[in-house]
Amino acid sequence: QSILTQPPSLSAAPGQKVTISCYGSSSNIGTKYVSWYQQLPGTVPELLIYDNDQRPSGIPDRFSGSKSGTSATLGITGLQTGDEADYHCAAWDDSLGAVVFGGGTKLTVL
Amino acid sequence: QVQLRQSGPGLVQPSQTLSLTCGISGDSVSSTSAAWSWIRQSPSRGLEWLGRTYFRYKWINDYALPVKSRISINADTGKNQFYLQLNSVTPEDTAVYYCARWTHHTGYFDQWGQGTLVTVSS
Question: CB distance from A44 to chain B under 8 Å?
Fold first, then answer.
């Protein structure tokens, strides 16, 4: 069972907006920065959002991140079939002295 | 352009030691702004951070509690690479293993190796 909690799966239609939640605690999300990773089928995870809400160069502004208290949210607007992937959240956990991940959310674009 | 290149066997026998290497180009394993991590992924456990090594006036290692008694991560500054050793493996250790760079200031993985599927089986 993962320390950070994400919904296992979500689905939405092309063009729609979707939000993926990531719930943690005061020892991780509550006091540390959150990052998000996109993992397309059969590929390596790729950094999507860092420092809660920052996009690396090359990541379209359809992707956004936010944090409030002990939870974080990844938003994707204008969904495309190419957005079908697993999305993972991560943060450092001070109590564990470790990086913790969410269980991953499989996004299906119908 | 930072690149991480993994190497190592894809099959390990139960009770033996899993050994992987991650070669770094475009950065230094001694960088004081990065930490060099190993992560694994399996269908049952998702992404699981195993540990890291980094240099801050001395070498420091952090390991995940579930593997702390079996893991060792070390760096070789001459070859600019770092290593994973996981002892006494069981089929539960079967996974895709990744090396990754963790930027130390705020903390995120911005570079990943290509991944190595390691199967533990006789």
Answer: yes
Q: Chain A closest CA to B94's CA: distance in Å?
A: 17
Q: pLDDT band at residue A1, thresholds of 50, 70 and 90?
A: confident
Q: At a CB cut-off of 8 Å and minimum separation 6, what does A22 contact?
A: A4, A5, A6, A29, A34, A36, A71, A72, A73, A74, A89, A102
Distance CA B30, CA B99 (A): 16
Find out whether A28 and A89 touch, Cβ atoms under 8 Å.
Answer: no
* Residue A24 contacts B where some CB pair is shorter than 8 Å: no
Closest of A45, A66, A48 to residue A57, by C-alpha: A48
Structural contact between residues A23 and A39, judged by C-beta atoms closer than 8 angstroms: no
The percentage of chain A sitting over the pLDDT mark of 70, rounded to a whole number, equals: 100
- With cut-offs at 50, 70 and 90, classify the pLDDT of residue A94: very high
* Contact (Cβ atoms closer than 8 angstroms) between residue B6 and residue B18: no
Per CB distance under 8 Å, which residues of B are interface residues toward A? 37, 39, 46-49, 52, 62, 64-65, 98, 102-103, 106-110, 112-115
pLDDT at A6 exceeding the cut of 90: yes
Token output for B115: 């991944």
The alpha carbon dihedral of B62, B67, B70, B71 has a sign of negative
Give the C-alpha separation, A49 to B109, whole Å: 10
Is residue B41 predicted with pLDDT exceeding 80? yes
